[in-house]
Amino acid sequence: MIICVTLFAINLFLGTTGLLYSQVRSNVDEGFSLIGPHEITVLYGNQYDDEGFNVNLFANNNPYILVSNNVDTSKLGNYEVTYTLNYLNYTKSLVRKVSVIDNVAPEITLDCEDDINLVVNTKFEGCTYKVKDNYDEDKDIRVDINSNLDESKIGDYTITWIATDTSGNTSEKKVTIHVKNRNDLYYIIVTITKQQLDYYENGKLYLTTPVTTGYYNKTPKGNFKILNKAKNATLKGANYSSFVKYWMAFRSGGYGIHDASWRNNFGNMNYYYNGSHGCINTPLEAMKTLYERVEVGTPVYVKD
After folding, report:
1. What is the predicted pLDDT for the residue at 60?
2. Mean pLDDT, the chain, as a whole number?
């Protein structure tokens, strides 16, 4: 925009008329100056308020000053504010340079957690990212992905997503991948004193359920694994025959995890006098979930 300003008695000091050209020039050079710095940086979207200028001339002639200002803080770029003074046929211009910049880094988000477990020799499916910036469109933001992941070797690895906008501002997101043996990530823990079964899937607790174990500590303690699975099985002993919908053996000799339709409750201390014959009795719905998700070979840890 163009602003024309005729200043009347703005800090004017009376002096003699008929000044020589050299005197006029010297007078203007000394009396016409910018207020504030000659170069200014403004952040994108912020308001720009110009500080203006000073005029101190030793004469009674009114100066004519033209102000040209093309600053647009809605667009990045370099702009100029020009002040042109015409005084006694002498013209002088002052220029203030204004740079509108963006110093805000783009935002990057991932659709996965920042700490991930992975079974060794299993392909990592990756994470999907989204970027957002205060100035650039998403398509203009560059995303670089750095990774040292080796799915074939046990260890901890890092994948880094780095987003860079057109102004060079960067942000990053990191994900740590823990490559482990399957048995370190998928396992069952039975705690007898709590009468509780916990199933861990991919290193995280997936299911917790009350159970009933063997009376008089007939449930063996130790480290075992799922040996086999069966549906609709009949368990037989010296003095019993019980039908179960889901059976998972964890030790030879007839020890397993199974549903028990004949029980009304689980998880209390009545296993001392009304416990199982050594198996781990489990509520039907929890047993159904375990049967569907637990593979043969999954570790079973039975402890006090």
Report:
1. 60
2. 91
Q: What is the pLDDT of residues 235-250, one digit of tens each?
A: 998 888 999 999 999 9
pTM value is 0.79
Per-residue H/E/C for the chain:
CEEEEECCCCCCECCCCCCCHHHHHHHHHHHEEECCCCEEEEECCCCCCCCCEEECCECCCCCEEEEEECCCCCCCEEEEEEEEEEECCEEEEEEEEEEEECCCCCEEEECCCCEEEEECCCCCCCCCEEEECCCCCHHHCEEEEEECCCCCCCEEEEEEEEEECCCCCEEEEEEEEEEECHHHCCEEEEECCCCEEEEEECCEEEEEEECECEHHHCCCCEEEECCEEEEEEEEECCCCEEEEEEEEEEECCCEEEEECCCCCCCCCCCHHHHCECCCEEECHHHHHHHHHHCCCCCEEEEEC
Per-residue pLDDT band at 269 (split at 50, 70, 90): confident
In DSSP terms, 257 is beta-bridged to 248, 280
